[in-house]
Amino acid sequence: MAFSLGLEGWVCVVTGAGSGIGAETARELAAEGAWVAVVDRDGDSAARVAAEIARGGGRAIGVTADVGQVESVAAAAAQIEAALGPCRVLVNNAAVRHREELLGMGVEAWNAVLAVNLTGALVCTQAFVSQMIGAGRGGSIVHVSSILGHHPQIGAGAYSVAKAGLGMLSRVLSLELAPHGIRSNVVSPGFTRTPANEASYRDPETAAARARMIPAGRPATPADLAQVIVFLASDRAAYIDGQDVVVDGGVSNTLVGLVPRPRGEPT
Ligand SMILES: NC(=O)c1ccc[n+]([C@@H]2O[C@H](COP(=O)([O-])OP(=O)(O)OC[C@H]3O[C@@H](n4cnc5c(N)ncnc54)[C@H](O)[C@@H]3O)[C@@H](O)[C@H]2O)c1
């Protein structure tokens, strides 16, 4: 018997779905029969992904919204419920990239990163959980974090701090929402080749050096992430709650392998 995720007709909302991991997650959900709201602040890219899904026989709508703006999220939630019905799955994927050392960082830039990458997840959760509770069928939330939420790096600054916060946001939510049959989990991608960082992979030297440091021997594809996100969203993962699944080809486990040893000593 085929392994079905049982998502037919489920209303799934994916933020930042106009590109990269979010777009691939929207496609995978639609391929499983879900009805998908492709949300992005770039309305053209959201519309493009939704149209592509519809051309393939799936059901999707493109929605323009900025997860950093409460009113914008509220309007999107109302639009989605009217068009597709109450949300059953929320994927908090939208994020902005930002590299800057913390000591010199202005509060305005700090707030701008946190507003999208951390507060945006809370605002979307509040807006769509009320639909889940109203429908009374439970639900699932998957937050897309990063290995940078687990491991510090100079320059990762507010991005890293926001992603670490997202991990605890999810764990607290998992406890608050369990009585409603709603789960909350995190997926933490490692190095993933998407339009956001295409420049690093177009440079052959950087691409090869990155591949060498990843035990899997290659960066992740958006599909590597999307498949895990979709599984966690589904009832196949009904007993996984408050967890953080690191999807990084093993790179987080390589730290001790970097320790220098005298020549001839067994590694
Ligand atoms: N690519 C990687 O190597 C990598 C690694 C770790 C974690 N991640 C995380 O994965 C997620 C997706 O990253 P990606 O590489 O696919 O990025 P991407 O830049 O390709 O896509 C992100 C999308 O989010 C949208 N977006 C940004 N701010 C928004 C806002 N305020 N409201 C609505 N939409 C907004 C953008 O318009 C874009 O379409 C992010 O949360 C990112 O932090 C990515």
What labels describe this entry?
single chain, 267 residues, alpha/beta, Rossmann fold, seven-stranded parallel β-sheet, 9 helices, 7 strands, globular, binds nicotinamide-adenine-dinucleotide
Bound molecules: nicotinamide-adenine-dinucleotide
The main β sheet shows up as:
7 strands, parallel
Number of helices: 9
Number of strands: 7
Largest sheet strand order: 3-2-1-4-5-6-7
Radius of gyration: 19 Å
So, the CATH homologous superfamily?
NAD(P)-binding Rossmann-like Domain
Oligomer: single chain
As for the number of domains, it is: 1
Please trace the helix and strand order, writing H or E for each element: EHEHEHEHHEHEHHHE
Mean pLDDT: 96
CATH fold-level assignment: Rossmann fold
Provide a quick synopsis of the model.
With 267 residues, the protein is α/β, with parallel strands linked by helices. The chain has helices at 20-31, 43-55, 70-84, 107-117, 119-135, 157-177, 198-202, 204-213, 222-233; strands at 11-15, 35-40, 59-64, 89-92, 139-144, 182-189, 244-247.
